[in-house]
Design brief:
Elements: H1 2-18, H2 32-47, H3 50-60
Helix pairs in contact: 1-2
Length: 61
């Protein structure tokens, strides 16, 4: 899931660079397009943590 979110925001950045929309100013939510992709990468890396998943498997028994 995190990989798909990263790809979506990466494509937003690419399309925004290749085909910009003419506006009178910067949209208020435009900064999130620069914050969200690195955040998604960090969350993805944290989701791959194998120690936590091993603990959860032991608790389930």
């Amino acid at each position: 899931m995190y990989l798909f979110i990263f790809i979506e925001y990466l494509m937003r950045l690419i399309l925004g660079a290749l085909k910009p929309i003419e506006t009178s100013g910067t949209a208020p939510g435009a900064i999130i397009n620069f914050i969200f992709p690195p955040l998604v990468i960090v969350l993805f890396m944290l989701s791959l943590n194998s120690k936590k998943s091993k603990k959860l498997k032991n608790v389930a028994r």
